[in-house]
Amino acid sequence: MKKDKVSSAVIRRLPRYYRHLSDLARQGVVRISSSALGKSMHLTASQIRQDLSCFGEFGQQGYGYNVESLRKEVADILGMNQGHTAVILGAGNLGRALLENFHFDRSGVRLTAAFDVCPELIGHDISGVPIYPIEELEHYLSAHPTSIGVLTVPGSVAGEMSERLIAGGVKGIWNFTNSELHADSGIVVENVHFADSLLALSYFISEAS
Of 36, 58, 77, which residue is a domain's last? Predict the structure, then answer.
């Protein structure tokens, strides 16, 4: 059984577990011990066991973990089998890059539509995803219940667009704008700041030199 409160650090390690277990499965690895899994992920065996214990008992003493079974368990924990759907607001440079290059389906999310204000984009498809005018957002969401709204719009309209998504019934927002959005009751917001990651890298490079 899942514990009442799981730390953010544990949750953010789960995708790493899923990716690594998927790689092991593709390599034909059937089972692996916590120490071997930890070593390959640069974690301790106790950290592996502690993280997974937040969600149940998955390994067997003396046997370790069945790789494919554990991969499926982690996928379930991450909600990858719940049929989540998503729409993108903003089909400009960043939105197009996500549409053309990011495999939403590999994360268990089906991307169904994108919205923009540019007449040259509206009415066309990008990688099979139709582009609609932003004016049709509310109508679309009412007809197609959507789990996730992806924001790649200018920061100046991020707040307004998030409010429209929330009013339309989305449960989570993946925010790529330069504006920090905060979760309301029942809504989850994941703010993605490329500059933060780059600055952190800059810091570590500076400290190492």
Answer: 77
